[in-house]
Amino acid sequence: RDYTFKEVRGPHTISATFAPVVRSFWKGAGRIAPAGEVVLPRGTMVSFAVQADTGSHLAGIWTNVRYMAPALVSNSAVAELTATNISWGPVDGPGEIRAAFEYDLHTIVVTSRWGGVVINGGDVPSSYGKTLPWGTELTCAVPGSPLEIGAARFACIGWTGAGSVPLAGSGTNTGLFRLREDSAITWHWAELG
Length: 193
Known about the structure:
There is one protein chain. With 193 residues, the chain is an all-beta fold. It is built from 1 helix and 19 strands. Strands 9, 12, 15, 16, 17 and 19 form a 6-stranded mixed β-sheet that branches. The longest helix has 4 residues, at 70-73. 18% of the residues are buried.
């Protein structure tokens, strides 16, 4: 700030006190509290709560451009660290705390005796696995039922699911579901007489 003194007619003393400012920033699915700028008296301690959103984990923390691996701030493994507190101080100058959050990854495994399985509109092999971010929307279907294999005909009679997949169904389409944990679906077939 600029200050202008007018009509000064004798000696004056001017003093200014500057307080350190610590700023918090984050990227991804999580947050730091307190957020933004924190103004502190020189020499005090400040604590920040670092919290990942559901389905995410803390990938890293930096303070004044120094990287702190999540394992250094918690006894948890990186993939399991969703929250921590950082105490900082005594604060004697400006600073920054930054955090990066990443979505957890989960696997979907599809098993089918016969091919023709489709996930989100794309064909996949009869034995298929893929790792996707938490919250990915999926549909799984067997649109080609019944199938003719040689002289025999087979019909998809439903599925059993685990994890985020609906537990069971008698159709050829699971409908929409969100991947929130490792999941599996097994398609069941019967020979038509």
